[in-house]
Amino acid sequence: MDSEYRKSIVSYYDNTQWDYRLLWFNNNNRSVHFGYYDHEVKSHGEALLNLNKVLAQKGGVKDGDIILDAGCGQGGSSVWLAENYNVQVTGITLVPHQVEKAQKSARKSQLEDKVSFFEQDYTATNFKDESFSVIWACESMCHAMEKSKFYKEAYRLLKPGGRLICADYFRTERPLHPEGEKLLHDWLDGWSINDIDAYQEHKINAEQSGFVDFEIEDITEYTKPSLKHLHSMASKLWRFGQFLKRIGLRNKINHGNHFSSIKQFEALENKLWYYGMLSLKKV
User: Are 55 and 165 in contact (CB under 8 A)?
Assistant: First the structure.
């Protein structure tokens, strides 16, 4: 990964960690992703955990799996997997403070023997070939500057018959009309996401890497309440955020994150992107 882009991702998560802490998760749920709402869900916290459940079912996670959480954030999904399955989980992230928080969460849950975390780039890891039976990527592949490199490394790391399961953002087409591209990047730029790919681009990259059974399921209807929740909070706090920036209590990155949290939902409503669940298999 380009060094400057890598620095921008680390800086984004360093500067916004308190935004996530105060507005998104709690001490018992460090899920840096959106929630999945169905008939079983009654709260924001339950929806965050429910996305883990739906992804695990889609990816066929089972006892005995050796899982790589590629772009693990603060370890929310890794810990959940270890709590709910008899599996070994390795989480990797570019962000040092996320490794520390994830390790602390594993210790708190007494799962150090099942979960470990490291600072690594998921497009160029130091793991041996065929080390994992499942690669899990929840809202993390979006940060890859070249998605093809993510797929190639995932294929190298998976055992024969292994599965890749992702929840992420997918653009509806490329190119969008100029106004659409601007609105899309009003969101992406503030979250340090270089770009997101369309269905066909993902399919080509995955199949060229060797994957089969390519499938993307549009699950926007189940995640939209969570997306709308973020937009509502960001919109209500916008003037207060502007005030905090003027008096020096919010920096450019904080402000950009806030702005993007509004623009993401606007881009969704304009049908520029959708929330999808991607699954693949290595023969």
Answer: yes
pLDDT at position 282 is 97
Query: CATH number, domain at 101?
Result: 3.40.50.150
Distance between CA atoms of 89 and 235, rounded to whole angstroms?
Answer: 37
Predicted TM-score (pTM) of this structure: 0.96
Domain count, the chain: 1
Q: Give the whole-angstrom CA distance, residue 198 versus residue 220.
A: 15
The domain containing residue 137 runs over which residues? 3-281
Reported as a single tens digit per residue, the pLDDT across 111-125 is 999 999 999 999 999
Task: Check residue 109 and report its DSSP letter.
Answer: T
Give the integer Cα–Cα distance in Å for 129 and 135.
13
